[in-house]
Write a structure and sequence with these properties.
Layout lengths: L39 E6 L4 H16 L7 E7 L5 H15 L6 H8 L2 E5 L5 H18 L5 E5 L6 H10 L11 E6 L6 H14 L5 E4 L6 H12 L12 E9 L8 H4 L3 H19 L8 H13 L1 E2 L4 H4 E11 L2 E3 L17 E8 L9 E6 L6 E8 L19 E7 L3 E9 L7 E9 H4 L7 H11 L8 H19 L5 E5 L5 H8 L9
Parallel strand pairs: 1-2, 1-4, 2-3, 4-5, 5-6, 7-12, 9-17
Antiparallel strand pairs: 7-13, 8-11, 9-10, 9-11, 11-12, 13-14, 14-15, 15-16
Bound molecules: 6-O-phosphono-beta-D-glucopyranose.
């Protein structure tokens, strides 16, 4: 196969959309995502929100710029502002220009902008949805979208049910002939198991289960998908990926930012619901799962669900969970306020901005291997990683002084920002004496591959438009994750205010105590 050809089995050849629609912007040398969406319209609810501005609209532009959207693509923003189409287009252009990851090209923009429309309205207004229906039909006709429609709910969870019902009542959720309808919902999927179930019932009463795409943007990250490649494409790692060799696993998602302008969303939700229930439990599942029969969504989901069902909570939640709230401090050069002083936060809030927990997995592969999960805002630096830490060698044929500086071997998946994999092992220090110290062997995306990885939302939006579901958590995974988190939240609910930690530090003292109780320590990423 020539290096200029798309991968075998891809739905379309380079420069051609799935339906044979040719796209002049497609770069035929880009083999990393050789799939192109077919004709369709994407409607975004909550288009003026943070997520749409910062992530969705730039991702759509970048997809177009990489030649992965068809010319027959329509984008409709639904919002409250009284904008004309042109005002909306100007607004989108401004945000795309400042946030896009590929070069801003007028030619790409001109092609995209022809399919952009704005629908004014509020979620509770049936007339607004009737008007949206008219715009959708116009876009179908103008852009030849074949009547395929995706609806992106970039809205607070409380608005999911009303939008879903309006889509049903206006007939927008119903497809005719071969055309498809898909709905994309952003996390959080509920705030506990019961509310997640209710939400699922509402959405499922409007859309078929294979038309519902739940976004966990971590699954769209290149390095997260590489976990599967590394584990299952190689011979090297899988034989040692078990309790015989692995001592414990640490999954860290640390952020240096505070909650910014998101108090309305975050206060009352907290770090565990925001991040552990979804991103970190997905990372745990991908790290711990058995080899799937294939990478179809069914087979992958089955293996992830098996792991999540085997998760066991600690017996003593007081010892093996920790939570904290950031206090004022320094973030680099900047003096920052504490969580309780953030605008929009209840000054008596007990919402945690840091959460850590030990989980065990009751399977033969992982018996006795703790998985430690932690996440927090305003920590020392922004880093997400999975560190698989190995047992010490059972015997060291050296003078004890020779290995006293040596730690445990580890394989670290550096999810971000410095994407890659690190292998940590002992090596002789050069010199006339035998002395062993830890060294790192690094694989860096930046050095091994040319071109930046696509942004997670690019990959996920493209997958929705193609109808590819493997990177989207199923309702069963969502349920199982809430089953893990609910008892922890219930326990924390009885514990009063979380411990304070200084902004710029590595979390509350309780998080260190959690590890010390097991004779371990957190890695300093
Ligand atoms: C989101 C959380 O899911 O992930 C945010 O709601 C968090 O609180 C964000 O800041 C982090 O995403 P990323 O891709 O920057 O690690």
């Amino acid at each position: 196969m020539s290096t200029l050809e798309p991968e075998t089995g891809g739905p379309a050849s380079a420069g051609q959309a799935a339906d044979g629609w040719s796209n002049p912007l497609r770069d035929p040398r880009d083999l990393r995502i050789p799939r192109i969406a077919g004709p369709c319209t994407l409607v975004i609810f909550g288009v003026t929100g943070d997520l749409a501005r910062k992530k969705l609209l730039p991702a759509i532009y970048d997809l177009a710029n990489r030649g992965l959207l068809p010319t027959s693509f329509g984008l409709i923003g639904f919002g409250r502002r009284s904008w004309s189409d042109d005002q909306f287009r100007d607004w989108v252009k401004e945000h795309v220009r400042t946030r896009c990851r590929t070069v801003f090209r007028e030619s790409t923009w001109n092609q995209l902008t022809e399919g952009i429309r704005f629908a004014r309205g509020t979620f509770d207004d049936p007339a607004a949805f009737a008007h949206l229906g008219e715009i959708v039909l116009q876009v179908d006709a103008d852009r030849n979208t074949h009547g395929n429609h995706a609806f992106y709910m970039s809205v607070p969870p409380s608005a999911f049910p009303v939008v879903a019902r309006q889509l049903a009542a206006s007939g927008l959720s119903e497809s005719a002939g071969d055309a498809w309808r898909r709905v994309i919902i952003e996390k959080p999927f509920g705030h506990d198991l019961a509310s997640a179930r209710r939400l699922d019932e509402t959405i499922s009463s409007v859309f078929e289960s294979d038309s519902i795409f739940r976004i966990d943007h971590y699954l769209g990250k290149e390095t997260v998908q590489n976990l599967l490649a590394m584990r299952f494409a190689n011979m090297l790692f899988e034989p040692i990926w078990n309790a015989n060799y692995v001592d414990h696993v640490q999954i860290t998602m640390a952020e240096d930012i505070g909650i910014g302008s998101r108090a309305g969303y975050y206060d009352g939700i907290g770090a565990a619901r925001d991040v552990i229930q979804n991103h970190l439990l997905q990372l745990l599942a991908l790290t711990a799962m058995e080899e799937p029969v294939s990478f179809s969504s069914h087979d992958l989901a089955m293996e992830k669900a098996k792991v999540l069902s085997a998760v066991r909570l600690p017996e003593d939640l007081a010892v093996h969970t920790a939570r904290g709230q950031y206090a004022a401090g320094w973030q680099g050069e900047e003096k920052v306020c504490g969580y309780l002083q953030e605008q929009g936060v209840d000054p008596a809030s007990t919402t945690e901005t840091y959460a850590a927990v030990r989980l065990d997995i009751d399977t033969r592969r992982w018996a006795g291997v703790p998985f430690y999960l932690r996440t927090g805002k305003r920590l020392g630096k922004r880093v997400t990683e999975i560190a698989v830490v190995f047992r010490k060698a059972p015997h060291l044929p050296f003078e004890s002084t020779a290995t006293r500086e040596m730690g445990q071997n580890a394989i670290v998946f550096r999810i971000q920002p410095d994407e890659g994999i690190t292998l940590r092992f002992g090596s002789k220090v050069p010199g006339s004496r035998m002395e062993v110290r830890d060294v790192n062997m690094d694989f860096d995306y930046g050095r091994s591959f040319t071109g930046a990885s696509p942004e997670a939302y690019e990959r996920l939006i493209l997958d929705v438009l193609l109808g590819d579901a493997p990177l989207f958590p199923t309702t069963q995974e969502v349920d199982l994750s809430w089953r893990i988190l609910d008892p922890i939240e219930e326990f924390w609910g009885t514990q009063g205010a979380p411990e304070q930690y200084r902004s710029g530090a590595w979390g509350p003292a309780g998080a260190d105590a959690l590890m010390h109780a097991d004779g371990r320590a957190w890695r300093l990423p």
